[in-house]
Write a structure and sequence with these properties.
single chain; 206 residues; alpha+beta; seven-stranded antiparallel β-sheet; globular
């Protein structure tokens, strides 16, 4: 009987530890989650983009209307990449990473739904922006993307990216806001507000 009790105790302990680890995985290390937004974390290398040779992780938060094609905040979200063993990224490398990321994402989702898409139409352009008072490098990007999550429509995504290496954590951070809407749209202003809150909460991004 004592052996049975001990075995049952070990089983409960293993379940508890598993639940704790799952909860930790679902808790952001960098991003904060606004009300009604969804959170996801992925480890590098990314399954849908194995050509991106980074080590570290990516966190994402998705707006409530992320996959609703008629919602004002359709496909609007924020992501941050926390990268080990990298101190900088050139504009050409950033373009390569984004292109590999979005091509791989669209293709992977299409394959999971057993649909066919032409990833050759997915393109990426990147431009450097003027720095603000922080030490980050700032970029804008435009991605022509096939939304295989919904109906395979072609959309144009606008991105603003902050790239910052932090000496203390010894990590390179790429923080981005993404949306098909233009910068004057209220949705874009909401994204910027959340981005600024994230930066305020994370000294390594400042």
């Amino acid at each position: 009987m004592k052996h049975q009790n001990f075995t049952f105790y070990i089983f409960l302990l293993s379940v508890f530890v598993s639940l704790q680890l799952t909860a930790q995985d679902n808790k952001p290390a960098i991003l904060h989650i606004p009300e009604n937004w969804k959170f996801e974390r992925m480890e590098f290398p990314l399954g849908f983009a194995p050509g991106i040779k980074y080590e570290g992780f990516e966190e994402l938060i998705f707006s409530p209307g992320m996959f609703d094609t008629v919602a004002p905040d359709y496909f609007s979200y924020i992501f941050v990449m926390s990268i080990n063993n990298e101190k900088e990224v050139s504009i050409s490398t950033l373009k390569e990473v984004l292109l590999a990321y979005y091509k791989g994402l669209s293709q992977s989702v299409a394959e999971s739904k057993e649909t066919t898409i032409d990833t050759s139409v997915i393109t990426c352009s990147v431009a450097k922006l003027k720095n603000d008072f922080r030490e980050s490098e700032h970029y804008s990007a435009k991605i022509t993307f096939i939304d295989s999550f919904t109906d395979n429509r072609k959309i144009s995504l606008n991105l603003e990216l902050d790239v910052k290496y932090n000496e203390v954590s010894q990590r390179l951070y790429i923080l981005a806001i993404v949306s098909p809407v233009q910068q004057k749209d209220p949705v874009w202003q909401t994204l910027k507000k959340h981005k600024n809150e994230i930066i305020k909460l994370n000294p390594q991004l400042q």
